[in-house]
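This section describes the prediction task in plain terms. A model, or a person checking by hand, is given the sequence of a single protein chain and must write out its three-dimensional structure as a string of C-alpha cells. No templates, partner chains or ligands are provided. The sample shown here is typical of the held-out split.
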Amino acid sequence: MNRRNSIKISAGALAGLMLACKTNASAATNETMDSFWDVVKNRRSVRKFKPDPVPDEHINQILDAARMAPTSGNQQPWKFLVIKEKEQIEALKEEKLKAYEEYFKEKKNLKGSELTDELEKAKLRLESGYLSAPVYIVVLTDNQSKYPSYNHWDGPLAAGYLMLAARALGYGTVFITDSFSEEETQKAFNIPERYSRVTFTPLGVPEEWPTKEKKDLGNFIITKF
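The expected answer:
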C-alpha cells in the first residue's frame, strides 16, 4: 500500500469516527462537530455548565479517545477518575472553601461579617461556575509507571485528546491546575499518593460557548532565530 492510499484510508477512518460521535450524541448535545478540523477550531475552555446529564456512553467514548494519546515507550501511565456523586463534589467545594478562608484571613485580614460575606460569595461563584457541571474527570499519572520521569509529558497529551473528544460530542471542558490545587482534589477524592494529578476538568453542556479568538497562525511559525 502506497503512502497516498494510506492517508486516504486514515482520513476515511477519522471521518467515520466523527460521524459516529455525531450520530451517538444526545439531544442535549446538539453542538456536535462535523469534522476533525471543526473540533480543533471550536474547542474552548468552559467554566459554566447546564445541569444536563452526560450519558455513560459518552463518558466512555471520551475516555477511550484519551487513552489513545501518544505515550513514552507505550507505557500508558494514566488513570481517569470519574466524579459524578454530589457528595464528592460537595467535598471538593468544602476543601476549596477552607483554602479561601485561610487566604481571606491571612492575606486579606478579614474577620467577622466581612469574612462570612466573602466566603458566601466564593461559595456562590463555585456553585455557578466550575462546580456547576454534572461530571468531573481527574487525569492522573501513575508514579510507578515504567518510565515515570516521562509522565509529565504523557499526561497532558491524554488530557488534550480527552478535551477534543468532549468537544466532538458537544461538551465543554477546561484544563484546571491551580484553580483547584492538587492537594484539594487529593483530599476530596481520596487519591492515593501513588498518583500525580495532571488536570481536573468539569464535563458538561456549556451555558454558552466562549468566543475568544485565537491568534493567527503567522504569529507562531518561525523558520530561524
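For orientation: The chain is about 45% helix and 10% strand.
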